[in-house]
Amino acid sequence: MSEEIVTTNKEPAAEVKPKRASWKQRFPWLYIILRHPQARIGVAILAALILMSIFAPLIAPGDPAAFTGGINGKPSKENPLGTDPLGRDELHLVVWGGRITLVVGLGTAALAMVIATAVGMIGGYFRGTLDDILVLITNLFLVIPGLPLLIILAAYLHPNTGTVILTLAFTGWAWNARIIRAMTLSLREKDYVAASIVAGEGNFTIIFRQILPNLINLIVGGFIGTTIYGISASTALAFLGLTDMEQISWGTNLFYAQNGNALLIGAWWVFVPSGLCVALAALGLAWINFGMDEITNPRLRAERELRNVLKGTKFQRVRATPVLRREH
Amino acid sequence: MKYILRRLGFYLIALFAAVTLDFFLPRLLPGDPATAILAPMGSRMTDVQIQALRQVLGLGNEPLFQQYLTFLKHLFQGDLGVSYAQFPAPVTSVIATGFRWTLLLGLTSLTISAIIGHLIGILGAWRRGSSFDIVMPPLFNFIGAFPAFFLALGALFIFGLKLHWFPIAHAYDVGTTPGFNQEYILSILKHMVLPLTVSVLVTLQIWIMQMRNTMVSVLAEDYITMAEAKGLTQNRIMFGFAARNAILPSVTGFGIFLGSILSGQMLIEQVFSYPGLGFLMIRAVGARDYPLMGGLFLGITVGVLLANFLVDILYTRIDPRVRSG
Fold first, then answer.
1. Which of A74, A98, A169, A312 has the fewest CB atoms within 10 Å, measured from its CB?
2. pTM of full prediction above 0.80
3. Least CB-CB distance to A142: which of B29, B255, B286?
């Protein structure tokens, strides 16, 4: 309500030249994320990890796989984080390891979301027999346990970055397809879609111009969630020795640490850096998704804004959350 | 009843899909088992020997469809082949031993985690913005962000290797005699503490987030306001009205959560060498024991489908809308 009042109080729209939409209006999800304190920290963590990976050659120059000295060596001046069971410098391994891990995570998310969006939108929009079949396939992928299937796939396929991304996307798209289908089902009943049909627009235009833009929040949220899945699952696969072991990733670092019996001799420094990086990446992304949750569930956002409004007043909130919107 | 039958039909289709995957993956993907086993032996094998091995693995020259029928026939007879890393144990008996341990660890962990997680979620949503709500859910989110096997390694290092509080491998002491005696049971409990704690810590956030977010929505319903207006006690409103309705999505979501819970547990079993299905499967992959690997995949899938079916039956009991619809 408040929003409408504010807009009518402004000058009549006809007299002003149509301004280009500000970035806040064009990317509302970005704006909300950056306003959410936890999500802001998440963005910072993720940015730091990505920058570290991009500038790996500057931060830790030289060949990361080179033998540098002691085996399972303690942190020292030459090797600030110590060395691993293969005598490689741990600092190099962590800095360079992010490259593969993050690429696999983001690549998995991109591919899985393309599948999820296609399956969800086609099923939700066209309905009928096609939808029934797609829903059945989606549910099958949801109920068949993911890690055992992943392990079987990885055991038979020749493992490299491409096949890892393919298998992870293959096992990880279903949940988002279900969510996108549900949203598409409700969107296609909206008046503006009915208006488009009356105006004679084709299915193609309606799907891409009317429905897809309204799914962006869900797709971005799903992308972030699937990136977490891609990072943790690829790390787990590498930890089990099921990816390309020549590569340097956070997962393979942990594999060599485990297989070199680093823990048994007390060399905790071989495990902690790579494991911590995986956890930080997952945490950063999860916190960004908390920000996203406030977009898809306005009640959560109203919750926080109400708390800010009531702060310092003698008013007490009731149990129920009124849904309110702050003007942007 | 109609609902139950529909679900049963779906699980049968899922089972069929899993069996089909299990059959076609080794045959259609590039690295077939026979070649993989033979690779280290190089050229020392004659063509006849290679052919014989392919025959043993069910990869003979018959048409694919013929092989598929044979595969299904053997499956119906409960014959999943012979594990050759643990020769001559049949795959089914290996699965049976692993199943006990996975079920023990999994059920205990699930029960503890679901109870604590839901309580934290309920209290968090009930006192939104309180210090409890600000500290607890984010804390377990933070813990849940760590890879399960990494936490397991940490626990193993600190409580197993450094402090020597708990054993670091296996499900019971070799010295004890399996059976219903105090020594054996104590040994099992002691070996379970670390894997169980890690498993609970990793899965808590699933239930907390699920419950808290649903509670927030449910608390806005009119019947909660009505209950307050009637002057019911806070506890009665919280558990009898709000939590009771908010728990439904946890039950429907169980099937999906089960997948990720199981993945975490497989890795935890691997770290603690806990002889469950996950540990066996990962070891089978390492040993290139293809019959066992495929059998375990089927075994785990059947277990997951059964669990889902049981939850569906439970669901009809707690949500009357499903029964009538």
1. A312
2. yes
3. B255
